[in-house]
C-alpha cells in the first residue's frame, strides 16, 4: 500500500490516520478495525477509480483465484463499518460508491498530510496550520470539519489560558453556585408539593424527579452561557471568542463526562420511580423458569448454534415436568436482554427463575457453564461447570435439567422420569448437524440459506436415519423452499418428509405447522386450519402457529384477522423475520403501501439489514412511484445477499426507468439462480421484448414461463398470481382463447386484487383489445394500483395518448392511502 498514505490523509472534511486506526472530525475521533482501515487505504490510493472486489480481497485478505464466501462477508462488513463511521449511505454516497458486480469507488479527492508526524505527539501538535483547510462538503452525522482553532498556532488554547478565561467569565462561580441554588429550589418545591398541595406520595415523587431532571439538564446550559455571554451595563453581550477551545470541541472527553453524569442522574430518578411502581411477580411462582440461549464463548463464531441448541434441549427436558412452568421458546429466545436486569427478565417472561450460561468449544471438548438465578432476589441458587468430550453432550443436558429440578424441589413421577431419560438420537454427529440446520433455518430469509439448512438436516439423517427431529427439519425446510421458488419438486419432497416425521411422532408441533403451510399452498385451507388448531392446543404461544393462521386468513380474504394473527406472532417472536415479511406482504398486496414500507423498515432494524427486508422495502417504494429510493433499497439488498429476488427486483427498477439493457442483466442473474420460477422467467421475457433482436428468445422464454406456471397451477389450481401471469404469457404467445380463460378464472377468484386486473390489462393489450385493457387498468387503479407506476410502465406505451388512460393516471382515482 502507498507508504505516504499511512501517515495520514484528508477525505474532504475528515482526517484519516491509518497507523493509529483513527478518523478525526469535529464530533470526535472514531477507531476503525484494522481490516476496514486497510480497505479504506486501498480505495484512497486510487480515488475516483473503481477498485475491483477481487483486488481488495487479494490485497487485504491475501485471497486470489477463487471465490471465498467468508472473505466476501468480511469485505461487506468492512464496507458497512466504513459507511457507518463516515456517515455515508449506499443510496446517496458521499464517500464510498458501490459499483454493482465490480467493486467500490472512493468519490472524494484524497489530500496527503504535510510532513511526517511524530507518532508519539498528539494530533494538535503535528498539523501544519499553513496547509489550506479542506473545503466544506456534504457530510453525514458521524463526520465533519475540524476547526482550525483546535490546532497549534497563535490562536491555540493552553491550559493556563483556559483557566484564566474561565475565571474571568465567572464560569467557576456558576459551576459552584448553580447546585446550591438548585438545592434551595428543590427544598421549596418539596415543601409546596407535600405541605401546601397535599398530593399523594407517588405523584409527589414523580414531580420532584421531574424538577430534579430539569435542573440537572439546565446545569450544562448555565455553564455554556457563563462562558459565551457576559452581563454588562448595556445588557447581555456575546463574548468575541464564544466558541469552546478546540481540544474540548474536537474531543468528547469533557462533554461525554458531563452528559454521562446528567444521564445517570435522570436515569436513576426514573429507575427509582418505576421500580417503586412496577407490578410484582406472583408469590407462588417458585416453580417457574425461563431458559435463555447460552452465550457462545468459543473462538469461532460459527459455534453460535451450540448455545441455542443447548438451551432448546434443556427446555425440552424441563417441559416434560408437568409441575414446572417453563416460559415458551419464542418468548425467551426473542427477548433482547441487553438493557434488562434479572428482575426485568423475570417480569417479561413471568417466571421467578432464569437459567443461562455459556458454551466454549475447542476441538472435541466442551466447557459449559450454567447458572440458575432467582429473579426475585438476584441471587445465584445453583451453578455448575462441565468439562466434557462432545460425545457426552446428552449427559450434560441431563445433568443440568436434573440439577434444576432438584434445586427447585419439583416432584417427578415414573412417566416423567422415563421421558427425561429419552434422547433424540444416539449419534452426536447427527445431533450436531441438526443443531446447525435449526440455527440456519431460524435466520433464513432467502432460498440459499434455506438450502443450507436442508443440507444440514440431510447430513444429520445420514448419521442416523431414525432421527425424528431431523425429518421434521427437512419437512420445514422443503416447505420454505417451495414458498421461495414455487418449484414443484420441493412440494413433493416436503409432503414426503412431513408424513415421515408425523408417522414417527404425531405430537410434533413444528411439523404440524409446516404441514399446515403446505396445505395452504395446495389451496386446502380447511385442512390447514385443522392442523393449526391441533398445534395451538399443544402450544398456544407458538409464534409459527400464529404466523400460519395469518397466512390462512390472508388467503381467505380475511385481512383484519390476518393482520391480528401476524401482529400476535411478532409480539411472541420479535426477531422472526418471516412474520415481518408476511405482514409487509399483506399490506403490499392490499394496497396499504405506506404501512408495508413501515413494516419492512422495522424488519431492517430487527434483522440489522437483511436482504429480504431491503427487497420488501424496495417493492413498497416502487409501487409508490419512488423509483430512486426503490433502486437504492434494491442495491442494498444485493450488497447484503445477492439472490433471485434481489436481482429481479433491481431489474424491475431499471425496467421502469427504461434502462432495458441493465434490466436484462439483472433478470438473467435471477433466472440463473432460480430457473424454475415462472415469475422470474416471465420478467426476463418482458425485458427482452423491448431490446431489438431478442424477440425470438423472448417468445421462447414466454413458452417456458407458461409451462412453469402451469405446473404451479397443477399443485394449486387457485393460485391467483399464477393465473394472472399465465394470461399475460398466453397473450404474448398469441393463444388468445387460453388467455381469456385464464383472465376469467383469475378475476373470479381475485376480483379484489389489483394485480389481477393489472395483468388482465396487459393481456387484453397484447391481444389488441385496448378498450378492455383500459377497463381492467381502471379497475386496478381503483383497487389501489398506483397511477404513478402505470405512468412509468413501459408495457403501456401504446396507451399513452389515449384520453381514457390519461384520466386513469391523472384523474381523481384513489391511491393506496385512500382505500377503506
Feature tags:
Arc Repressor Mutant, subunit A, 60% helix, Rossmann fold, globular, alpha+beta, 820 residues
What low-confidence regions span 5 or more consecutive residues with pLDDT below 50? 116-157, 246-252, 269-283, 812-820
* Mean residue pLDDT: 78
Q: Helix proportion of residues, in percent?
A: 55-70%
Strand content: 5-15%
Helix/strand structural class:
alpha+beta
- The CATH topology annotation of the domain at 3-150 reads as Arc Repressor Mutant, subunit A
Biggest sheet overview: 6 strands, mixed
CATH C-level class of the domain at 3-150 is Mainly Alpha
Write the layout of secondary structure elements.
Blueprint: H1 3-6, E1 9-11, E2 14-17, E3 22-25, E4 28-31, H2 34-45, E5 50-52, H3 53-61, H4 69-86, E6 96-99, E7 103-106, E8 110-112, H5 159-168, H6 171-196, H7 201-228, E9 229-232, E10 235-238, H8 246-249, H9 253-277, E11 288-291, E12 295-296, H10 304-318, E13 325-326, H11 329-333, H12 342-349, E14 353-362, E15 365-374, E16 380-389, H13 393-408, H14 414-421, H15 428-442, H16 447-463, H17 468-485, H18 488-504, H19 509-521, H20 525-538, H21 543-555, H22 559-572, H23 577-589, H24 593-607, H25 611-623, H26 627-640, H27 644-656, H28 660-673, H29 678-688, H30 695-715, H31 720-732, H32 736-749, H33 754-766, H34 770-782, H35 787-792, H36 803-810
Helix pairs in contact: 2-3, 2-4, 6-7, 7-9, 10-13, 10-15, 15-16, 15-17, 16-17, 17-18, 17-19, 18-19, 19-20, 19-21, 20-21, 21-22, 21-23, 22-23, 23-24, 23-25, 24-25, 25-26, 25-27, 26-27, 27-28, 27-29, 28-29, 29-30, 30-31, 31-32, 31-33, 32-33, 33-34, 34-36
Amino acid at each position: 500500500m502507498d507508504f505516504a498514505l499511512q501517515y495520514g490523509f484528508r477525505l474532504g472534511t475528515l482526517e484519516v490516520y491509518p497507523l493509529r486506526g483513527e478518523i478525526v472530525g469535529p464530533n470526535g475521533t472514531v477507531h476503525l478495525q484494522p481490516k476496514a482501515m486497510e480497505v479504506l487505504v486501498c480505495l484512497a490510493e486510487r480515488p475516483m477509480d473503481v477498485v475491483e472486489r477481487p483486488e481488495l480481497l487479494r490485497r487485504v485478505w491475501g485471497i486470489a483465484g477463487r471465490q471465498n464466501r467468508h472473505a466476501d462477508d468480511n469485505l461487506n462488513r468492512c464496507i458497512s463499518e466504513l459507511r457507518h463511521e463516515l456517515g455515508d449511505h449506499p443510496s446517496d454516497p458521499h464517500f464510498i460508491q458501490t459499483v454493482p458486480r465490480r467493486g467500490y469507488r472512493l468519490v472524494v479527492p484524497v489530500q496527503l498530510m504535510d510532513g511526517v508526524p511524530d507518532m508519539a505527539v498528539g494530533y494538535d501538535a503535528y498539523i501544519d496550520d499553513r496547509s489550506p483547510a479542506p473545503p466544506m462538503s456534504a457530510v453525514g452525522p458521524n463526520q465533519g470539519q475540524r476547526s482550525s482553532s483546535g490546532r497549534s498556532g497563535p490562536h491555540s488554547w493552553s491550559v493556563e489560558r483556559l483557566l484564566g478565561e474561565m475565571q474571568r467569565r465567572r464560569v467557576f462561580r456558576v459551576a459552584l453556585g448553580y447546585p446550591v441554588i438548585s438545592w434551595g429550589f428543590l427544598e421549596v418545591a418539596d415543601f409546596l408539593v407535600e405541605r401546601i398541595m397535599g398530593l399523594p406520595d407517588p405523584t409527589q415523587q414523580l414531580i420532584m424527579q421531574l424538577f430534579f431532571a430539569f435542573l440537572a439538564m439546565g446545569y450544562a446550559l448555565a455553564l455554556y452561557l457563563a462562558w459565551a455571554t457576559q452581563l454588562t451595563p448595556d445588557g447581555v453581550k456575546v463574548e468575541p471568542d464564544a466558541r469552546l477551545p478546540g481540544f474540548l470541541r474536537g474531543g468528547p472527553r469533557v462533554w461525554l463526562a458531563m452528559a454521562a453524569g446528567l444521564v445517570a442522574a435522570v436515569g436513576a430518578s426514573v429507575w427509582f420511580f418505576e421500580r417503586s411502581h412496577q407490578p410484582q411477580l406472583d408469590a407462588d411462582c417458585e416453580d417457574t423458569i425461563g431458559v435463555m440461549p447460552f452465550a457462545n464463548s468459543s473462538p469461532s463464531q460459527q459455534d453460535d448454534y451450540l448455545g441455542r441448541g443447548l438451551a432448546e434441549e434443556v427446555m425440552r427436558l424441563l417441559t416434560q415436568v408437568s409441575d414446572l412452568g417453563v416460559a415458551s421458546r419464542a418468548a425467551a429466545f426473542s427477548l433482547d436482554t441487553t438493557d434488562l436486569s434479572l428482575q426485568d427478565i423475570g417480569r417479561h417472561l413471568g417466571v421467578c427463575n432464569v437459567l443461562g450460561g455459556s458454551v466454549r468449544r475447542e476441538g472435541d471438548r466442551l466447557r459449559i457453564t450454567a447458572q440458575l438465578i432467582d429473579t426475585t432476589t438476584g441471587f445465584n441458587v445453583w451453578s455448575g461447570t462441565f468439562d466434557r468430550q462432545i460425545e457426552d453432550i446428552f449427559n450434560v443436558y441431563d445433568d443440568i435439567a436434573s440439577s434444576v429440578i432438584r434445586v427447585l424441589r419439583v416432584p417427578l413421577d415414573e412417566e416423567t422420569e422415563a421421558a427425561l431419560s429419552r434422547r433424540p438420537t444416539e449419534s452426536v454427529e447427527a445431533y450436531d448437524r441438526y443443531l446447525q440446520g435449526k440455527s440456519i433455518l431460524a435466520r433464513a430469509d432467502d432460498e440459499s440459506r434455506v438450502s443450507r439448512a436442508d443440507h444440514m438436516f440431510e447430513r444429520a439423517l445420514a448419521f442416523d436415519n431414525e432421527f425424528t427431529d431431523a425429518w421434521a427439519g427437512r419437512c420445514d425446510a422443503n416447505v420454505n423452499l417451495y414458498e421461495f421458488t414455487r418449484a414443484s419438486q420441493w412440494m413433493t419432497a416436503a409432503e414426503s418428509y412431513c408424513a415421515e416425521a408425523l408417522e414417527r411422532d404425531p405430537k410434533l408441533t413444528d411439523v404440524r405447522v409446516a404441514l399446515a403451510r403446505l396445505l395452504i399452498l395446495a389451496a386446502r385451507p380447511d385442512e390447514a386450519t385443522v392442523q393449526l388448531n391441533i398445534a395451538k392446543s399443544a402450544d398456544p404461544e407458538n409464534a409459527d402457529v400464529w404466523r400460519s393462521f395469518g397466512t390462512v386468513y390472508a388467503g381467505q380474504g380475511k385481512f383484519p384477522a390476518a393482520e391480528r394473527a401476524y401482529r400476535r406472532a411478532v409480539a411472541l417472536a420479535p426477531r422472526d423475520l418471516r412474520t415481518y415479511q408476511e405482514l409487509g406482504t399483506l399490506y403490499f398486496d392490499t394496497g396499504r403501501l405506506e404501512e408495508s414500507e413501515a413494516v419492512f423498515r422495522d424488519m431492517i432494524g430487527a434483522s440489522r439489514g437483511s436482504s429480504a427486508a431491503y427487497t420488501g422495502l424496495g417493492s413498497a417504494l416502487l409501487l409508490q412511484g419512488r423509483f430512486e429510493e426503490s433502486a437504492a433499497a434494491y442495491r442494498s439488498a444485493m450488497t447484503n445477499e445477492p439472490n433471485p429476488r434481489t436481482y429481479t427486483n433491481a431489474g424491475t427498477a431499471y425496467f421502469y426507468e427504461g434502462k432495458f439493457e441493465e434490466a436484462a442483466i439483472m433478470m438473467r442473474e435471477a433466472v440463473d439462480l432460480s430457473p424454475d420460477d415462472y415469475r422470474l422467467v416471465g420478467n426476463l421475457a418482458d425485458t427482452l421484448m423491448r431490446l431489438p433482436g431478442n424477440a425470438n428468445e423472448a417468445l421462447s422464454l414466454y413458452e417456458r414461463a407458461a409451462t412453469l406456471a402451469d405446473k404451479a397451477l397443477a399443485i394449486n389450481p387457485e393460485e391467483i398470481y399464477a393465473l394472472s401471469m399465465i394470461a399475460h404469457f398466453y397473450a404474448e404467445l398469441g393463444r388468445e382463447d387460453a388467455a381469456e380463460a385464464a383472465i376469467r378464472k383469475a378475476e373470479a377468484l381475485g376480483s379484489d386484487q389489483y394485480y389481477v386486473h393489472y395483468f388482465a390489462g396487459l393481456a387484453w393489450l397484447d391481444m389488441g383489445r385496448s378498450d378492455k385493457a383500459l377497463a381492467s387498468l381502471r379497475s386496478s387503479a381503483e383497487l389501489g394500483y398506483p397511477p404513478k407506476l402505470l405512468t412509468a410502465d413501459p408495457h403501456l406505451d401504446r396507451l399513452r395518448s389515449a384520453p381514457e388512460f390519461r384520466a386513469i393516471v391523472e384523474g381523481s382515482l384513489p391511491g393506496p392511502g385512500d382505500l377503506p
